[in-house]
Each structure stands twice: as structure tokens, then as C-alpha cells.
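It is worth pausing here to work through a concrete case rather than discussing structure prediction in the abstract. The textbook approach is simple: state the sequence, then state the predicted structure, then interpret. We follow exactly that order.
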Amino acid sequence: MGKIMVVAGEVSGDMHAARVVREIKKLAPETRFFGMGSKCLREAGVEVLVDPTDISTIGFSEALKNYRQHRDHLKMMKKALEREKPDVALLVDYSGFNIKMARITKRKKIPTVSYFSPSAWVWGKRRARKMARARAVIASVFPMEEKVYREAGAEVHFVGHPLLDMVNVEESKDEICRKLELDGEKPIIGLMPGSRKQEVEYLLPEMLKAAERLKKEKGDFQFVIPVAPGIDRDKIVEMASRYKLVLKVVEGANYEVMKASDFLVVASGTATLEATIIGTPMVIVYRTSWSTYHLGKLLVNLDYIGLPNIIADREIVPELLQQDVTADNIYREITNFMSKPYLIKSIKRDLEYVKNKLGRPGAVRRTAELVLKKGKLYI
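Step two, the predicted structure:
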């Protein structure tokens, strides 16, 4: 019976790791799993020894506050590795922590696969070199990721992005509108302020102010907020109640809202890639603490923050960052694009180009096969 250690640290990593675990179980049903993660990995049958999601943060100064807990978690996982002696390790996202885990697995001679690897194409090639020196095998989900890790000397397998399998809405726009009680004949604007409380607090008020102005000046606009997992719906409703605005707040319908919407205002992150696959035009917004933003500017060598723009290597959708995330600017972007059908058509064409660069469906299966192969559990 094979044994696999899985290490994931945030909600998204927990979800992606769990999907790989389920696929491995189809291929090698007797495999046992243990490690670090949260709800999704538990539900997939992993013995979760550490759940770090309560200290998941964005930003440098924010992460420093939890340094001691991160250090304690690393010690716990090292002890578990020594005790359990797994055949292979699967490290998912959680870059700073998993770079350290990869060094430990190398010393213990445990084959290691890195999925959603440290973003060396964002933070610089040094991260890629660290993972290459740790002999982690990279299951690459982005084309630019494949290139930078290969140049660093790592073994890289381009598996493609798992969202190509996950983002699939069979219902038509009309069917979704009927279900959500929206008028498909009137413009629908989706507001997506993120999956972290901090993001919602920074971004949602400006989104709601812009929506309030749009409703006042252009009365036929409709607004809908799909509540991200882990976000309190009541908190969203309470924040929205401060504005003279009628909007829908729905749960468990992110993709449906994306498909039904004519335009999205969306926090930078995975949701922008989901919207890309669905093909919905958007403006990307993001705001974080002053210290995190300016330190990031010093460390990050990227012209864009949004994944669609990074993958395309040009701005195909507008971005509003930091002090530019204002109700006036959001209002301007929405009205500009919604009044010019040729711009909407152009964005949709560019989004299709980016979608094609993400590879082909089957990423989770290919990753599961790679993990089993490296652990000599299945060939």
C-alpha cells in the first residue's frame, strides 16, 4: 500500500490538492494520504495533521505576524515525514512554506512533485532555482511557469490548468437568469470582491459605490454578487445595505454569475482566470496594504497583476490597482465598455486566445499519474 504526503496551505491549494488525491484514488485505491490542508483534503480522505487556513493572509507584513505558527507547522510536518516515511510528497501552492518542505524532502530522499509551484515568473527566477536544487518535479499549470522552471534546471511536465476541467456551465444565459431571477434583456454586472475577508473589506465598498451611481444614472443595470467560499454572506448583505441599491447576493453560483454577466468587476486572482475560460469581459481590481504593495513593486518584475494579462503578455483587460480602485474609475470602465460593443468583442477574442494557452483538459489526471510515477506506485 502506497503512502503520500500532501502539503497545502490555503483554500485554493486545499481544493486543487483534494482533486489530485481523488484522481490518485481512482488509479491506486489502496493509497494512504496524510499531511497539511483543510476541509477539502479531509473530505477527500486525507489524514490532516495541520490546518493552516486560519492564518492564511495576503501581504508581507501580514504574513510576518504569523511567522511563529508557520515555523511550528513546518516542524510538525518534518516530524510527520520522518515518522510516516511516505513514498512521495505532493506540495501544492503555499510557496514560502513549500520551498522549505522541498528542501526537507530532498534531505530525506523523498521524491517530490510541486503543483501550483512557487510563482518564479512573478517573484524572480531565484524561486525556480531553489525548487530545482531541491529536485522537486514541477507539474506546470502555466506556459510561462514551464519556461522559467525549465531554464532553472528543474524537471518540468506541463500538465495544463485544472480550471479547464472545472469551469463548465452547461446552462444557457437565459436559464441562469431565470434561476437567479435576473432580466436577461437588461445589462448584468457581476461584482466579485475576492475570497479573503481582507479583499472584501478593501474592494467591495468602491464596487458598491460605483453600482449605486450606475443604478442612479442608468436605471436598467442589474448587479449580482456571488459570495466566495469562506466569506460570510450576511457580512456582504450588511455592507450592501449601506447603499441605495438593489442587488442579488447568491452563494454557490460563481460560474453561473460569470456566464450570465455582461461585464465583471473582479478581484485579481483565480476568478480572473475562471472568467477568462467562460469568456466574460472584466475589469480587474486589487488593493492591499501600502507596505505590501510597495515592497511587492520592488520585488516583482511584472507589467501586469491580472493573470489574463500576464499570460497574454499585454493588457487585454483593464486593471485598477491601489489608489486607482475608486468608484469613479470602476464606473468609467463599466460605462466605457458597455457602450462600445466592438470593445467587448475584442476582449472576448483575446480571452479565447489566453484560454487556448492554458493547455488542454485533463490536468488533474496527468498530475495524479505524475505523482504515482515518481513514487513508483503506478506506471
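Step three, interpretation. The mean pLDDT is 91. The first helix runs from residue 11 to 27.
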